[in-house]
Amino acid sequence: MKILAIETSCDETAIALVEASGGLPRPRFKILENLVASQIKIHAPFGGVVPNLAKREHLKNLPLLWQRIMNNELGIRNKKSASKTITHNSKFIIPKIDLICVTVGPGLEPALWTGIEFSKELYSKLKTQNPKLKLIGVSHLSGHLYSFLLPSDKESLKSYGLNLKSLFPAIALIVSGGHTSLLLMKSLTSIKKIGETRDDAVGESFDKVARLLGLPYPGGPQIEKISKDGNPLAIEFPRPMIHQKNFDFSYSGLKTSVLYYLRDNKDADMADVAASFRQAAFDVLIKKTFRAAREFKARSIMVSGGVSASRELRKRFNKETKKSAKIKLLIPDLGFSTDNAAMIAAAGYINFLRKKNHKLEANGNLQI
Ligand code: KG4
Ligand code: ZN
Fold it and tell me: 100 near 4, Cβ under 8 Å?
C-alpha cells in the first residue's frame, strides 16, 4: 500500500511517500520520498521554536513539498522539464495513494493544525482518484517508536528483513526535545510506558544548556560539536535519579547545576562543561535503559528521537550492548532519528492495520 505521511508537530515540515507491505507479522517499508524542510534558521534567533512562526512556515512549505513529491513521482526529477509548473489540480499526475497519515500530537497545536488541514484538503482531492483512500491521525511518539522498522540507507527493501519475533520483549527509549520515555514492548503492538521524565526532556536540557553556553538553537548538535574538545570527566555534575529503582528521569536539576557552575566559575572551559554535562545526561539514559532491559529480560533495545542522532549516544549504547551479547540494539539512520514523515508512515501503517487511529484533531499532549 502506498502511504503519504505528513508531519508538522514542531519546527520541521515533512512529507514522505512510503510503500508498505507485509502486514503486522512482517512490516516492510520502501522509502519513495522523504522530504524535510527545516525551520531551524528561522527560530534560531529566538533561542527556541516560536509556535506562530512555525505555523506560518508549515503553511508555506507544505504545498512546496507536495509539489516536489508529485514532480518526482512523474519521474521528471533532474530533468529540464522539472522547472515546469505542475499544479495539483491536474488529474493525471497524482500518484495513487491508499492511506494518508498525519501527525495529530503531541506537539505545538497551531503547527499540528496546519498538517491536519492540509491532509484533509489532499484527502478530498485524492479521494476522487481512489475512493478507498483513508486518512488517519498518528501520534508523533509512535512515529519515533516505530522508526526502528525503517530500512537504513544501506538496506534495500529486498534485503531488509527484521526477524520481529526475535526482538521481543524489547525496551524502547524515546529521547527528543519534548520526551524522555522508556517503554516495554511485548510485541509490535503491546506497548506499556514504564518510565518518563518528571520535568524537562533530555533534548530540552541540551537546548537549555546550549543557551547557557551561548550556543544557538537547537542545542544538541552544538553541544556534540564542542564536546569533542572537552573532558567528560572534568566536572562532576549530578546524575539525577540514577540510583532510584524506578524508570523515571529528571533533567531540570542537571541544567540548574550547569547554571550554578557557570555562575561560580567565570573562567570555565566551555568544552569541558559541555562534555561533562553530556556525560552526566547520557549516563542516566544508559543506566536506566539497561536496567530495564535486565529486569524485563529484553531481547532488544530500541533508541529513537532527536537525541539519538548523537554519535556519542550511539557509541555508548553500542559499547554497552556488546557487554551483554544477547541484546540486539536498533537505532534508526540519522535522518530517521530527528523529526521526519517516514516514521509517521511506518507508525500509521501499524496503527491502521490494528485499527488504532487517533482523531483528526490537534492534541498537544497526545500519548502514544
Ligand atoms: O525528535 P526531535 O527532532 O523533535 C522532537 O520531537 O522534539 O528532537 C529534537 C531534539 C532537540 O532537543 C535537539 O537538541 C536534540 O533532539 N538533538 C540532539 C542531537 N541532535 C538533535 N541532542 C543531542 N545530540 C545531538 N547530536
Ligand atoms: Zn520528534
Answer: yes
Instruction: Pick from 49, 146, 173, 176 the residue to mutate for probing ligand 1's pocket: most ligand atoms within 8 Å of its CB.
Output: 176
Q: Which CATH architecture has domain 164-331?
A: 2-Layer Sandwich (3.30)
| Mutate-to-test residue for ligand 1 from 206, 336, 366, highest number of ligand atoms within 8 A of CB | 206
Ligand at minimal distance from the CA of 201 is 1
For 255-277, what is each residue's pLDDT tens digit? 999 999 999 999 999 999 999 99
Q: What does the domain layout of the chain look like in residue ranges?
A: 2-152+337-354, 164-331
Q: Is the CB of 11 under 6 A from ligand 1?
A: no
CB atoms within 10 A of CB 134: 17
pTM, to two decimals: 0.93
What is the CATH code for 2-152+337-354? 3.30.420.40
Hey, do 2-152+337-354 and 164-331 end up sharing a CATH topology, with the first three levels equal? yes
- Quickly tell me which residue has 561533562 as its cell: 276
Any ligand 1 atom below 6 A from CB of 203: yes
Q: What is the pLDDT of residues 208-250, one digit of tens each?
A: 999 999 999 999 999 999 999 999 999 999 999 999 999 999 9
| Sheet with 191-196: strands ordered across | 191-196, 180-185, 170-175, 300-304, 328-330
